[in-house]
Every structure is written in structure tokens, then in C-alpha cells.
């Protein structure tokens, strides 16, 4: 990866190693996910003024009222999505700055990510180009619709909280696929949907806090 230098020492592999140790201590077990988190330089995706906090395990403001997810949550959601298997085609709703898409690119063959805020879509495009990530396709669109022309997906991950699961996303999940998303308004929980020949199976997991999934493009 070709790195940009924002802030002294922030590109250091040692800083990222510390993050990985913290994720391990917090319970992330999937070595493939930990390796992916280790490979992606998070500081590239955050504002220069915040670069010194890029490897703290906190969410950070992205502008446009949005936030880049906390590393633990990114790792946890991808660990659940993977469930130990190699992923082929993955859909992310809510590209934001593109950080999670870059981590997904390390664990899946093809990643599609949808963002409804045009300047965020454009910035994420620039960051991913800069890192020469070539297996992520970004779309400026309303993620509630999913991407029917690319479906089915063996993994779907949502980075914004919905009050109920968008129907289109369930339909675009492959048999054998997994979808991980935050659901709820005041109180939010991660939910896992698994699809098999019989239908869908839902499990409620950790309490979380995400920005809301909105309707339409902006
Ligand atoms: N995965 C991101 C975090 C994004 S925050 C990262 O790694 O930085 C959630 C994002 O979801 C915001 O950028 C927000 O604009 C986007 N979003 C909200 N509703 C959406 C919708 N209906 N379709 C697509 N994106 C949406």
C-alpha cells in the first residue's frame, strides 16, 4: 500500500499493532479479520486534525454529521459476517469515508459499497484510489434498495441503524449468506440474519450506537 503522511508517526506499524492487541483483548478472535485491520491504515481516512487519534478505539467525526465507526465495531461486524468462511461478494450500506470498505476488501473477493451523501462518496473514491484498492466498487445511491443488478451477496453489512430491515436487502442475500446490521432507534442492537433453504433466521447480538439509516440521496 502506498501511504500518505498525515501526522508524525501515525503511519507507524507499531501504532497499528497496538490497536490489534487491543482488539484481541476486547475479544476479536478471527485472525483473518485481525490481519485485515492490521493491513488498512485508518489515518488515511480521517481528517488531518484527527489523524493522531486514528488508532484509538473510538468513532471519529467524518463531516456531514457522520462518523467513522469505532475499530472494534468494524472488526466485530466483519467477524460475524465472515463466520470463519471466505467471502465472495459483499455489499456494504453506508460507505462513509471508505474505511470499513477497505477492511472488507481484505477479506472478500468483491466489495460493493453504497453511500447516499455525494461528497462522502467522492472522498471515499479518492481514498480508495490512493490506497490502490481495486476490488471495491462504490455507488452513490440509496442503500435501502441494495444493488439488485449485482445481487445475490453472500454478505451484507450495514453501517447505519435502520428501524426495520429493508426488504430489498433480505431478498438480495444469497442462500447461505449472512447479513449484519444495527436495528433500533433509541436503543440499537446488532442483528444477524442468516438465510438458508428454509428461510431467514434472526439473532439479536450486542448493544450498539450508529447514525440512522436515511431515505433517498442527498
Ligand atoms: N462504514 C463507514 C461508516 C459510515 S457512517 C466508515 O467506515 O467510515 C454511516 C454512513 O451511512 C454515513 O456515511 C451515511 O451517509 C450513510 N447512510 C445513511 N443512510 C444511507 C442510505 N440509505 N444509503 C446509503 N448510505 C446511507
Characterize this entry briefly:
The chain has helices spanning 13-25, 31-39, 71-82, 99-107, 118-130, 167-171, and strands at 60-63, 66-68, 87-93, 108-115, 136-140, 153-158, 173-183, 188-196, 199-208. With 218 residues, it is α/β, with parallel strands linked by helices. The structure holds S-adenosyl-L-homocysteine (SAH).
Secondary structure: elements and pairs:
Layout: H1 13-25, H2 31-39, E1 60-63, E2 66-68, H3 71-82, E3 87-93, H4 99-107, E4 108-115, H5 118-130, E5 136-140, E6 153-158, H6 167-171, E7 173-183, E8 188-196, E9 199-208
Helix pairs in contact: 1-2, 2-4
Bound molecules: S-adenosyl-L-homocysteine (SAH).
The site of S-adenosyl-L-homocysteine (SAH) has 23 residues, from strand 2, helix 4 and strand 4.
